[in-house]
Specification:
Elements lengths: L1 H4 L1 H14 L8 H19 L13 H7 L8 E12 L2 E10 L7 E8 L3 E8 L4 E8 L4 E9 L7 E9 L3 E11 L6 E11 L4 E11 L7 E11 L3 E8 L3 E9 L4 E12 L11 E13 L3 E8 L3 E11 L2 E10 L4 E12 L2 H10 L7
Parallel strand pairs: 1-19
Antiparallel strand pairs: 1-2, 2-3, 3-4, 4-5, 5-6, 6-7, 7-8, 8-9, 9-10, 10-11, 11-12, 12-13, 13-14, 14-15, 15-16, 16-17, 17-18, 18-19
Length: 365
């Protein structure tokens, strides 16, 4: 009986000896205090009912991306022909043709593939440039985003890596743009962003930037601060950027189909005033925009303090065909821009029926 039970104390003694060699990392007063403090803060944050505030980049997304014409204005003629092969996994091919536009290439081929965890998109333009995007979702909260662009007209290739973590009441992002270590040191642009919900309606954030073009140049750093206040009917946000730039935006939902947004940008430039040794000059602009959502169309209009008036109308004339009309008039410079686009979606009949049930909640393109 003793021979059978004798090895047990010896094995337990070995396990305790192995465990005790690293126990000082977790079994100490400092670690215990940190764990208790974190658990207490997590419990208080959960009791307050805090939600995720979004990201620093999208702090004014309702105004900049949805209402205003920043991402919707174009000029010239454009035609997009899309072919949807499957929804799960998502696989789509798109041909783009443009004429009379300085921003869009004359011809472009784009391919999109996506699942719940992986998203890939590539575009090849007629001028020889190649752009690729890729997202990998490691978990439900952590995602890595990559982007690369090769342009034969430029000597350097642009590469970007973005790691984003979405918590229950905060968002953390670390971004690297064209990083390099081949010169014997770290070069490129590195951006860190953090946005935290303070109350169920208020969120505060900070952004830090580190930039170094080459090892022979002095590194540059900058810090920006932002705030976002959200209610059921309106959202206000503000940013204090480096070099004395202040940006404020206000979004309000007037009705179920009408949204309005105001964006104000103020730039302080020290030492550029008209007075001798004089004070800083102030330059600013204000933009007011409206968005109307109809059953089969979306209408956007904006006017700014510089005298520009722009409109964009998107209308689905048939299930596979969408027409887009864009116009901009500059009263001060006496110039104008006009744009007309046609988008044709092609898909098998069963996929068209599914897409028609999914897409009405989104603006038709």
């Amino acid at each position: 009986m003793a021979a059978v039970t004798a090895p047990a104390p010896l094995e337990l003694g070995v396990v305790e000896e192995k465990g005790s060699s690293l126990s000082f990392l977790t079994d100490n007063a400092i670690t215990a205090t940190i764990n208790e403090t974190y658990a207490s803060l997590a419990a208080k944050r959960k009791a307050m009912g805090l939600t995720n505030p979004g990201t620093v980049e999208g702090i004014s997304r309702e105004v900049q991306r949805d209402v205003l014409l920043t991402n919707h204005m174009f000029s010239g003629l454009r035609c997009d022909v899309q072919k949807l092969f499957s929804l799960n996994p998502l696989f789509r091919l798109q041909h783009g043709f443009a004429m009379g536009s300085q921003a869009l290439p004359p011809w472009q081929l784009m391919c999109i593939y996506g699942t719940n965890r992986v998203f890939m998109q590539g575009a090849y333009s007629g001028d020889g440039s190649v752009t690729a995007w890729g997202n990998l979702r490691w978990t439900d909260r952590f995602v890595t985003k990559t982007q690369a662009q090769i342009d034969p007209r430029q000597s350097q290739t642009m590469v970007q890596f973005d790691n984003e973590y979405t918590g229950e009441d905060f968002s953390l992002s670390v971004k690297a743009i064209t990083p390099g270590i081949m010169e014997g040191g770290l070069t490129g642009i590195f951006i860190g962003q953090y946005l935290q919900s303070i109350t169920p309606k208020l969120a505060l954030g900070i952004e830090g930037v580190f930039q170094r073009a080459t090892l022979g140049t002095k590194p540059e750093t900058a810090a920006s601060y932002c705030a976002r206040y959200k209610t059921d009917d309106w959202i206000a946000s503000g940013q204090i950027l480096a070099a004395g730039q202040v940006n404020a935006s206000y979004w309000r939902k007037l009705t179920d189909k009408v949204e309005a947004g105001v964006d104000c940008n103020l730039q302080f430039m020290p030492g550029m005033g008209s007075a001798m040794f004089g004070g800083p000059s102030r330059e600013g602009s204000t933009t007011l925009g409206l968005k109307y959502n109809f059953q089969a169309s979306v209408y956007r209009a904006q006017v700014d303090s510089a005298g520009k008036l722009g409109v964009v109308l998107e209308r689905r004339v048939a299930p596979p065909v969408t027409l887009t009309f864009a116009a901009e008039i500059d009263q001060v410079k006496n110039t104008h821009k006009l744009g007309l686009a046609v988008s044709i979606d092609g898909a098998p009949e069963e996929l068209e029926e599914i897409s028609q049930r999914i897409e009405p909640a989104q603006p038709p393109y």
